[in-house]
Design brief:
Layout (H helix, E strand, L loop, with lengths): L4 E6 L3 H12 L3 E7 L3 H11 L2 E2 L3 H7 L2 E4 L6 H10 L3 E5 L6 H13 L4 E4 L6 H6 L8 E7 L11 H17 L5 E8 L5 E9 L5 E7 L6 E8 L2 E6 L4 E8 L2 E4 L10 H14 L8 H24 L4
Parallel strand pairs: 1-2, 1-4, 2-3, 4-5, 5-6, 7-10
Antiparallel strand pairs: 7-11, 8-9, 9-10, 11-12, 12-13, 13-14
Length: about 325
């Protein structure tokens, strides 16, 4: 009989309810229960997916081996700390915490207790990204756009931690190194936090990346373009598609790539976490990587803050 991981979900709002659905579907996991400060919501989600709606976090922790946490960012540190102190493996949505300092404390707790700790950078599991990865070698110029219409959900943090951090994580993953120079601009538009931002990153080998994120755009766009020797790769996250061109015999020719669009990134992501616990191996997006992405995001935020203060817009 297959071993199953007894797991619970903390925070079953828009995203957390999807975590519950997926964990109820994954054959390697047993969705034991859910917890949310909104008890009615927890009860509804629990009933939908055959799980107990626990009345406290402590009760859920006593009944599980692992937890998937999808509470608002402002509560990540407090909830994650309790989960790790209880000795439970943890999947934590991005960003890890409000600050790098908090994130490092959480990592230290997990390390002391030898716990698996994965961060929810879901674009790593986009089937287009997974398919394109084998063709990405030493990019020299990277350009990313992540644009979205305004949505009050997620505005507890600025657009860098809300949206741009996805592309910062992927950039670090693709480049395999941390930038040596960060230059960023951004402004508040519809909230009191930065709603649109652009960052230019320079790396030690001369590589350049230009990343834009906006939550005040008319239409959605989520694309990243990578330029490397004799190759151009464009990944559309929304459509799960890839355009790949290569230089052949002095001409630029398309190189068609098939992508299995039926694959669900969230299911791939959560299954990878469950398997990392059951098989005792390193999660594919480790807490260490989550901290690097958060550190870079904080540098971007600080550069923007300095410019806004200088312009007396803060």
């Amino acid at each position: 009989m297959m071993a199953k991981l007894r797991i619970g979900v903390v925070g079953v709002g828009h995203l957390g309810s999807q975590h519950a659905r997926v964990l109820a579907e994954i054959e390697e996991s047993e969705l034991v229960g859910v917890y949310d400060i909104d008890q009615e919501r927890a009860k509804a989600v629990g009933e939908r997916y055959g799980a107990v709606a626990f009345s406290s976090l402590e009760e859920l922790l006593r009944a599980t081996e692992a937890v998937s946490c999808a509470v608002p960012t402002e509560s990540h540190y407090e909830v994650a700390r309790e989960v790790l102190k209880a000795g439970r493996h943890l999947f934590l949505e991005k960003p890890m915490a409000r600050t790098v300092g908090e994130a490092e404390e959480l990592l230290s707790l997990a390390q002391k207790r030898n716990l698996k700790f994965q961060i929810g950078h879901i674009e790593r599991f986009n089937p287009a990204v997974l398919r394109a990865q084998e063709f990405i070698e030493d990019p020299k110029f990277v350009e990313a756009h992540r644009l979205a219409p305004y949505n009050p959900r997620g505005t507890d943090v600025d657009v860098v931690l809300d949206l741009m951090i996805h592309d910062l994580d992927l950039l670090l993953h693709f480049m395999g190194k941390y930038p040596m120079k960060v230059d960023a601009v951004g402004v508040p538009v519809l909230t009191d936090k930065v709603d649109i931002a652009n960052v230019r990153l320079e790396f030690e080998g001369g590589e350049i990346a230009n990343i834009t994120a906006s939550r005040v755009s008319a239409e959605k766009m989520r694309k990243i373009r990578l330029f490397q020797k004799d190759t151009y790769i464009s990944i559309d996250y929304l459509n799960k598609s890839i355009d790949l061109y290569r230089k052949r015999n002095g001409e630029i020719v398309p190189f068609p790539l098939e992508v299995d669009r039926s694959l669900e990134p969230l299911k791939l992501e959560l299954r990878a976490f469950v398997q990392s616990v059951l098989e005792d191996r390193r999660p594919p997006v480790s807490a260490e990587e989550g901290i690097l992405a958060q550190r870079l995001a904080e540098e971007v935020i600080e550069k923007i803050k300095q410019r806004l203060e200088k312009a007396k817009l803060l």
